[in-house]
Amino acid sequence: MIPELGHYALVLALVMALAQASLPMVGAQRGIRPWMQLAKPAALAQFAFVAFAFLALMYAFASSDFSVAIVTQHSHSQQPLIYKLSGTWGNHEGSLLLWVLILTIFGALVALFGENLPPRLKARTLAIQAMISVGFLLFMLLTSNPFARLNPAPLEGDELNPLLQDPGLAMHPPMLYLGYVGFSIVFSFAVAALIDGKVDAAWARWVRPWCLLSWTCLTGGIALGSWWAYNELGWGGWWFWDPVENASFMPWLIGTALLHSALVVEKRDALKSWTILLSILTFGFSLLGTFLVRSGIITSVHAFAEDPTRGIFILALLTIAIGAPLSLYALRAPTMRGGGLFAPLSREGALVMNNLLLATMTATVLLGTLYPLLLELTTGGTVSVGMPFYGATFVPLALPLLLLMAVGPFLGWKRGDVKGALQRLIAAGVAALGAAIIAIWIKTDGPILAPLGLFAGVWLLVGTAIEFMERVRLFEGNAARIWTRMRHTPRASYGMSLAHLGLAIAVIGMTGAAAWKTENIKALQPGQSLSLQGYAFKLDSVAGVRGENYLADQAHFIVSRDGAFVADLYPERRQYLVQPMPTTEAAIRSTPFADLYAVIGEPDGKGGWTVRVYHESLVSWIWFGALVMVAGGLTSLSDRRYRVGAPVRAGAVQIAKA
Amino acid sequence: MIMSRKRLRLYLVLASLAVLGVAATLVLRALNQELVFFLSPSQIAAKQPDAGQQIRLGGLVETGSVKKDGATVAFSVTDLNKAVTVTYRGLLPDLFREGQGVVVEGAFDGTGQFVASEVLAKHDETYMPPEVAKALKESGRWQETQGKDGAQPMMTQ
Predict the structure, then answer these.
(1) B119: number of CA atoms within 13 Å, CB side?
(2) Which of A313, A507, A560, B80 sits between 20 and 30 A of A51, alpha carbons compared?
């Protein structure tokens, strides 16, 4: 019964979305106020119906209702509750429902908190958002009904893919979707502004918090995904440039560009049409990602087996959703004149360079992702584009961006004093040079990337710190004065410093992890040991253990260094109840400087086990950095200027400049 | 100096051209040097790649061919016409099975032995790497079978 109600709720949500997509739009065109006002209740009702459907599906998973097809395919009665619940989005249909849920959440949030928006803009934004809903609800109801029943119902389900039974992955899709589906509302704002024909500083101020929220969630989602890959896949790596990863990384890159260009619109009334274009493209990349992941068109080590016919539907959606706004953009963009002029060497100039580099980086990732497909279509040859390609294209473009990032915040709007900025960055330069020399000293014959990456990371880290200290004048006056100044510094400006700091930390971590990772592999009998980086890993014993829904061989390693005990590691090789495949559970000991990472493989049949151990330098900095970036995003979001309805005079915004 | 709109636009265009030019150069170089081509066992039998050239090899793990020696594994990858023997030092992915599809990346060493640097894992056991499906189709041994994914190959031996 409940699944049927869920299905019915989806149909009602579609009806609501249709109403919300049409009436307020016409109302805004003709100036019919009641029709415009309809957008708010429609958005709330649509959200309520989709939320009901989502809860109904979650209930089916929680209660192991195996008459629902996807519950049978992706759940098992003995699974821990958290993985029953996360099974809701661990499959195509359910994750699509989550997609639509987030789409409607953002619609409802704008309906509720957009009280200070001009009524026309609000009505149109919600109407556009509802049009996206219509597309995806139709997609779900026509091709991927999550509530399809099985008759007769099986007694037991097939279990969630064991690789997905990990706390990191339980949270990863909702976070990621909040991010990249969140950009839909920015897209809706942009299209509404195109129809309105008016983009100004006020528009940018309304859009920025949504952009910031999406960006923050996307950052967190990508970091969680990478953390999961590191913990769960047992490859000892954290990023593979896999098409599925790129699918979420491209919206992040272009969304980061958008976040910065919207700032220029807000503060200086320039780069307007570029910002609108970025808003459309960012969501375009989200849709493209959805298409790539679900159509199975791209060869990926972790593509899910999906039905290619569904791909056609998403491709059609993508074409309409991006094609129509881009045509509108082509018509309207020439009418959007930028206001503020600026010198090339200025804050605006730096942000333009930021946008140029980020857009180019996105383009290289896009090319790398699609190239195998293009080549196969044109010549029939099959290639894979992996780490070496991105190392040779993406990384050289990222380095100048990192160098520029430390300088930009020192420059004033309109015209900046580059010489003064560089003078104040001398300490950062010295520290960065020191780090690069240390990198060469650690490993003389290492890749050139190591000193360069560390140089850029430390430069940005110290540069950001100096900029922050100068902004609040940390060493002037007594403690009380400093405290007052710090309290009066806007939260958004703390947010910027934190986010930049986080990226610096993550870059240092990525460089260390990429350049200095070492590994050893050997077949060991219990009692034997292997050594790596001065550590001795002794295989003490292998024992059978029983988990909630799996059996495992658990190895016990005693790690020591120069005879002194360091850690116990317990990697496992798990066999889940239903799924025939065993999974490896890595054992990791994290310290700030390096992780010790052990994996156990198959028995060799002679009482020995293949074991693989890694020494991963600085790898935990990556996730710590991501966490700091998320903290930066949240801090910015809490800035009261985004909550206070009354438009703030542009001049009153005090990004305090020394 | 605050510049005129025209001047500013000129600078923007020049900056974009510079960045795009650098990016295009990097990409073209990388496409020449950093791509890894996918070959089937039959293609390798027809034309042996140079030693040291990175390639991806795809097919089915030949039944009965897996031999372990300490941490080193040797197995044959077949498209059911031709087979290539692969050695790999490392942990096999969880889904590695005799008779199942596999993609290995590596290169031939000087003695004509294919040494894998990576054996690729998948998320899903019903998933057949498209490259493997293609190799099997080309060798004429592909059989579409029932099942929703239609991608389970049959070992016809």
Answers:
(1) 27
(2) A313
Residues of chain A with pLDDT under 70: 296-308, 338-339, 643-658
Find the CB nearest A382 among B89, B126, B134. B134
The residues that bridge with B60 in the sheet, in sequence order, are B78, B101
Neighbours of A412 (CB within 10 A): 18
Q: What residues in B contact A415, CB-CB < 8 Å? A: 1-2
Residues in A closer than 8 angstroms to B90, CB to CB, are 521, 612
Q: Which residues pair with A603 in a beta bridge?
A: A609
- Contact present, B116 and B106 (Cβ < 8 Å): yes
* A15-28 pLDDT, tens digit each: 999 999 999 999 99
**Which amino acid would we find at residue A17?**
A
* ipTM over the 0.90 cut-off: no
Q: Judge whether residue B93 has pLDDT over 60.
A: yes
Structure tokens at A222: 């990508």
Residues of A in contact with B40 (CB under 8 A): none
Q: What is the dihedral of CA A449, A450, A456, A457, to 10 degrees?
A: 130
Work out the burial of residue B1: count CB atoms within 10 Å of its CB; fewer than 13 is exposed, 13-18 middle, 19 or more buried: exposed
Mutation target among B25, B35, B61, B67 for the A interface, most CBs of A within 10 A: B35
Whole-number Å distance between alpha carbons of A655 and A490:
8
Which helix (H) or strand (E) segment holds residue B102: the answer is strand B101-108
